[in-house]
């Protein structure tokens, strides 16, 4: 059945595992670059989604948009109404430490947030939510086989991109041990708890709040291939 935000009528055209970048054009790039026999499954609001095969396995990739309300809507509809079992977010992040360089891959062990998303959903009053451990373990094994280093740790899911206090990240890094920042995973993990499903998050460092280095918009869309290949090769 179609939902308010996903037009697909046939659940059989969505895989049990969905890779979810924030940028719908990154979803398009992944589908065109890596998948075979691709079918577009969504175009509502230009939030592109595609299903195809990768090494014989059925895979769906779909954009989430920016921020927790956006990924909150799409991931919940996929979990609840389209029988998706696992969502792996594949996104960009800003480094909170000089131990992370541009293009490094980060696996979220858990996500800390100031957000009230989980509380409002009626899921949890906690400010730190964990990724699904069994999925993370499979991701780490896949990365090891591919020879791609992965940094695992706590990440910060923020509701705010432009903070007035630009140095606030230092306190978050020290108190929460959050090694980088993005804007979606806390809501994704909350929805997995709410629906009894699985969620994980792979990130590529796109910029650094410490060194002020940054990638371009085109690089964020097309060049984060290590993260993509880890997710594509992870068998859930």
Automatic annotation (TrEMBL):
Keyword field: Glycosyltransferase, Transferase
GO cellular component: cytosol
Species name: Acholeplasma oculi
Family: Belongs to the PNP/UDP phosphorylase family.
Name the record gives this protein: Uridine phosphorylase
Top-level lineage group: Bacteria
Pfam family, one: PNP_UDP_1
Catalytic activity: uridine + phosphate = alpha-D-ribose 1-phosphate + uracil
EC numbers on record: 2.4.2.3
Gene Ontology biological process terms, A to Z: nucleoside catabolic process
GO MF, one example: uridine phosphorylase activity
């Amino acid at each position: 059945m179609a939902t308010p935000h996903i037009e697909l009528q046939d659940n059989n055209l969505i895989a049990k595992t969905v890779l979810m970048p924030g940028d719908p054009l990154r979803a398009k790039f992944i589908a065109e670059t890596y998948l075979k026999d691709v079918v577009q499954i969504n175009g509502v609001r230009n939030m592109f989604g595609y299903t195809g095969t990768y090494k014989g396995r059925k895979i769906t990739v779909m954009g989430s948009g920016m921020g927790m309300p956006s990924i909150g809507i799409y991931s919940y509809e996929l979990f609840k109404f389209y029988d998706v079992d696992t969502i792996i977010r594949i996104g960009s992040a800003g480094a909170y430490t000089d131990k992370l360089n541009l293009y490094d891959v980060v696996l979220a062990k858990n996500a800390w947030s100031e957000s009230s998303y989980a509380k409002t959903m009626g899921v949890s009053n906690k400010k730190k939510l964990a990724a699904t451990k069994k999925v993370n373990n499979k991701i780490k094994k896949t990365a090891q086989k591919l020879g791609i280093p992965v940094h695992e740790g706590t990440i910060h899911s923020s509701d705010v991109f432009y903070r007035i206090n630009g140095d606030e990240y230092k306190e978050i890094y020290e108190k929460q041990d959050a090694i980088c920042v993005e804007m979606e995973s806390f809501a994704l993990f909350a929805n997995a708890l709410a629906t009894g499903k699985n969620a994980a998050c792979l990130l590529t460092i796109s910029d650094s709040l410490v060194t002020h280095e940054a990638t371009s918009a085109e690089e964020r869309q097309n060049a984060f291939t290590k993260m993509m290949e880890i997710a594509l090769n992870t068998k859930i």
